[in-house]
Each structure stands twice: as structure tokens, then as C-alpha cells.
Amino acid sequence: MLKSLSRRRLLVTAASAGSAAALGGAGIGVLGGAAVARTPPSPEQDERVLTFLLRLQRIEHAFYEEAARVGALQGELAEYIDVTRANESDHVEALAKTVGVESGPSPMRFTGDPAFQDDAAFVAKAGALEDAVVAALNGQVTNLTPDRLMLVCGIASVEARHAAWIRDIGKAAPAASAADVGLDADAVTDALRGQRLWR
Amino acid sequence: MTIDLSRIDRDGAVREAQDALLSRGQLLGGALAAVVAGLAIPGAASAQVDKRDASVLTYLLSLEYLQDAFYTEAERLGALRGDVSAATQVLGRVERAHVQAFRELLGSAAPARPRFDFQGATEDELAFLRTALALEELGIGAYAGQATRIQSPEVLQSAMDIHTVEARQAAWLRRLLDMRPTEGSFDQPRARRSVVGTIASKGFIVTRSEIPKTHRRRKTPRFTG
Fold it and tell me: What is the pLDDT of residue A37?
């Protein structure tokens, strides 16, 4: 069903016009708002959307859990991991409770990922993950009923803070764009697969 | 009509910042994603904007005017140095892009730009950073507080795409203040009355705004936005 909410065609159009850059392979373009495709929000759609977002949050949580377990990254990265791990755990719990399921395990395991042994590799992967999650959350805001929209809003800005934080650690501009353009589920999962962050 | 980056980024500033981001991203092996600056704001004539949405947009534009003026004045005065100065330029460019986009969307219904008095906060680094952070945190709450009031999906999408940029900016400023970028797992929305009251209490807006006159402190601004 998420595919039916797709704005992918617009993204591809924007990318082909040269107005998009890569986000792990997914184009992010300047979108004409009038073409925002959507199905009117409903409780059933809420459940589908939140289930998708819960899966993303579980992946994020598992990523930081593994980084903390390995324990090779020190200093400000260790603090970043500690804080974001706790935030993602809360996000998982809130979304799972809203959907009415158990928090449950991540669909992915990151055991042996070399990113947890190297500062630059970790920053790159965490940055890609956080940017993609911000785009994913923003990409669903028009699909949700008001209560669920407020939950997602409260999470999205925290994820954006994570994205800015890890970018700053990596000496990349934390907030250089005028907008965090939302992406549909297909574009997000494509981007994350390219980074081995989705399965 | 669609508002795109080339129209709202007339001085090329956001694009320049994006280029810088891409350049710095190379330090990360190019794997850190770069998000293109772009606003998904429909360029509909103001007459086509729902009356309730126009009210929300006018309110949010007032906030953007304030942020824009604050950073622009800091840039013009040139009292800030180093990383803070560099951040100010990027933050100002982004806020100017937001103002431009909202003004184009509202058309003739866009409110006039108020005049401001920042009471020296743009001339001292610590005062600047603390004030900037307060404005950005206010922006996060303000955008979230309007999310369920917006009628048009297109306007909602645009507002939320900006909402997370405000959060990135707040995190950046927190880093510059040597503060942790997040304070909790969930940011909270703020009601319009609360936001307007907070701004009014600072006395930054001195003319032509929706802030009640009784809250204004000075008639003559030291600087104008």
C-alpha cells in the first residue's frame, strides 16, 4: 500500500532534470507540492505507515546497540551513540505501543560491521541512516491522522538533531539545506539497501 | 506554478552551502549523504490558499522574518568570528530562503516585514548563540504546533520539511554552545499563543507585527531587519 502513496515518479523526474543529488542512490528533488500524491488518512493507513516507521526505528536502534556493544568508538562518538541509542529505544517503544505490537527485534543484525571499528566509516553510515530516517518521517506526514502526525513530528525533529550532530562530528555542514524533502517508502528503502542498512 | 530552489535561492547561497557540504562530505569518503536544498512549497496564488492555512503561513512567516533578520543583522555587523560566523552565514541563507518561499506562497497576503531590535544580541558571541538557539527551539515547537491545523497536504508537507531543518539548526547551535544536541527523545509542539507570548516578552519586534503593542518595549529600533 505504501507504494500507492509514492512520490517516486516526481523524485525520478527531479533527478533526471539534474536538480537532485544522491542520497545513497535515491534522488531528492525539488518537488512541486501540488503533485503530492496521497490517500486520505485513516486508522488503517496509520497502522501501515507506523509499521514501516517502526521497522526503521528498530534498525536504527539495533545499529546503535551494536556500536555500543562493540565499544570501539570513543570520545564524542561514544556520547553520540549512547544518546541516540536511548532515543531510538524510546521511539521503538512509542511506535510499537501505538501500533499495538511488541517492541520486538530488529529485522537486521549488524554483527561484524566494520563501521563500528572506524570513526569515519561509522560517521558516514550513521549520517546516511539518520538523513534517510528524517526523509522517511517527512515523507509520511500527509498520510497520517492528526494524533499519529503529532507523534511522528515529535520523533522527526529529534532524528534531525541526530543527523545534524553526526554531520558536525564528521565536519560536514549540519544544516545546509532549506528543506528536508520527504521521501516515500520505496525511495527510503532503496537508499538504505545501498548502504546495507535495510533488509 | 512551482517554487523551486533557483527562484528562492537568488543569491545562490543555499546552493553554495550545498556545494560546501558536498566538498566536506568528501572527508567522509563521500558516503555521508548530501541532501539537496529544496522546498516543496506549491507556488499557488494566495487566493488559492485556504484561509486557515493562510493564517498559519502568516504566523510561520513572522517567525521566519525574525530568524532571517537576526542572522542577517549578525552578518552585517560582522562581530562574530570563526565557526560561529561561518554558521551564521549558512543559517541566514536558509532562513532567507524560507522567507522568500512563504512570501511567494502568500503573495499579496504576505504581511510586511516587521522592524526589529535585537538589543545587542547580534554583537556578542554568547548572546548571539543563546538567542539563536532560543529562536530555533521556538521554531521547532511552532511548526509542530501547527501541523494538525494545516488543511492542505501540500502546505503541510512544506511546513514539515522546514520543521526538521529548524531542528538541525538547533542541534548545530547547541554544538557551538558545547551543549548536547538533544534533550529528550520527543520534541514537544508549542501553541501559537505560547510562541507569540515568548517572542513578545523578548521585545525584539518593535513595529508592524501581530505582537500586541502592550508587549513592545521600544519605539525606535537600534537596527532594522
Answer: 52
Question: Is A158–B187 a contact, with Cβ atoms under 8 angstroms apart?
Answer: yes
Query: Is B165 inside a domain boundary?
Result: yes
Total-model pTM: 0.81
- Name the band, by pLDDT with cuts 50, 70 and 90, for residue A2: very low
Residue with the larger pLDDT of the pair A173 and A152: A152
* Separation of CA B208 from chain center: 19
- Which parts of chain A fold into alpha helices (H)? 8-16, 43-70, 76-99, 119-138, 146-169, 185-194
Q: In angstroms, how far apart are the furthest CA atoms of chain A?
A: 48
ipTM of the complex: 0.84
Amino acid at A65: E
User: Is residue B31 a contact partner of residue B92, using CB atoms and an 8 Å limit?
Assistant: no
Whether residue B11 contacts residue A155, with contact meaning beta carbons closer than 8 Å, is answered with no
Q: In terms of CA atoms, which chain A residue is nearest residue B145?
A: A150
Separation of alpha carbons B112 and A157, rounded Å: 29
| Chain B partners within 8 Å of A153 (Cβ) | 143-144, 147, 160, 163, 187, 189
What single string gives the DSSP state of each residue in B204-224? Answer: -EEESSSS-GGG---SS-SS-
Closest CA to B132 of B163, B164, B175: B175
* pLDDT tens track for A58-75: 999 999 999 999 999 999
**C-alpha–C-alpha distance, residues B136 and B198, integer Å:** 13
Question: Is residue A21 a contact partner of residue B31, using CB atoms and an 8 Å limit?
Answer: no
In which domain, by residue range, is B84 found? 5-215
Would residue B221 count as lying in a domain?
Answer: no
Digit-coded pLDDT (tens) for B7-55: 333 344 334 433 433 333 332 222 222 222 334 444 444 547 889 999 9
Q: Which residues in chain A have Cβ-Cβ distances shorter than 8 Å to B42?
A: 32-34
CB B87 within 8 A of CB B172: yes
Chain B closest CA to A175's CA: distance in Å?
A: 5
CATH number (domain holding residue B38): 1.20.1260
* C-alpha Rg value of chain A to the nearest Å: 16
Residue B96 sits at the chain A interface (C-beta within 8 Å): no
Binding-face residues of B in 154-213 toward A, CB within 8 A: 154-158, 160-172, 175, 180-182, 184-189
State the Cα–Cα distance between residues B9 and B28, nearest whole angstrom: 27
Reported CATH class of domain A41-194: mainly alpha
Q: Is residue B99 part of a domain?
A: yes
What angle is formed at CA B5 by the lines to CA B4 and CA B10, rounded to 5 degrees? 120
